Amino acid sequence: MITKDYTTKDEKVCELFKKRLKRHPIHTQYGADADGNVYSFKSNIFLKYGITYNGYCDLNLRLDNKRKHIKAHKFVYECFNGLVNTSTNSGESLTIDHIDNNKLNNCINNLRIITHRQNVNKNRLKTSRFTGVYLNIKRNKYISYFRGKYLGTFNNETYLAFLFDNEYEKIHGIRPNNTEKGTF
């Protein structure tokens, strides 16, 4: 086994660290580590992220003497898993998802590929104890719709159940949540 004679401790650390990096399949002058850091093999530096208007980490790469903006989570995912085909055989579009919903956490174990529909519905609505009332995780409030009609967003799920029952009763004649008629 041949060992390299390092002149400084920094070179040894750098060489060991480069072994953890995975090169991007297309943009091979750049790579990423499992912690979501992006490295330029040409400049031998880690790149700094910018933050987009909607909170994602943005990379500003120089490719063919042109600047190109790439979302960091997509870049890191592709370094470890190959290029992402943006559609499935059934025609659904695919997207890279942050499992913990933290747009700044680009660790490879926090990224997964899911359909656009799954991503949209992932955190949107969780059920409450009432029919037709859902907990919106991001806003931490309850929300209700009836046949596409927006009934409101409130902290009080009981009030939304009352509103839902009023709308439901107009069409079906019964109150699914058994709330009392009248005013709340």
Main features:
Homing Intron 3 (I-Ppo) Encoded Endonuclease, Chain A; alpha+beta; 23% helix; 184 residues; 4-stranded antiparallel β-sheet; elongated
Explain how this protein is built.
It is a single chain. The protein is of the alpha+beta class and 184 residues long. It has two domains: 9-121, Homing Intron 3 (I-Ppo) Encoded Endonuclease, Chain A (Alpha-Beta Complex), CATH 3.90.75.20; 124-172, no CATH class. The protein is built from four helices and 13 strands. The chain has helices spanning 9-18, 72-81, 116-122, 157-172; strands at 22-23, 30-32, 38-40, 45-46, 50-51, 57-63, 66-71, 94-98, 111-115, 126-127, 133-136, 141-146, 149-154. The chain has a four-stranded antiparallel beta sheet, with helices on one face. Strand 6 and strand 7 form a beta hairpin. It is elongated.
How would the blueprint of this fold be written?
Elements: H1 9-18, E1 22-23, E2 30-32, E3 38-40, E4 45-46, E5 50-51, E6 57-63, E7 66-71, H2 72-81, E8 94-98, E9 111-115, H3 116-122, E10 126-127, E11 133-136, E12 141-146, E13 149-154, H4 157-172
Antiparallel strand pairs: 1-2, 2-3, 3-4, 5-6, 6-7, 8-9, 10-11, 11-12, 12-13
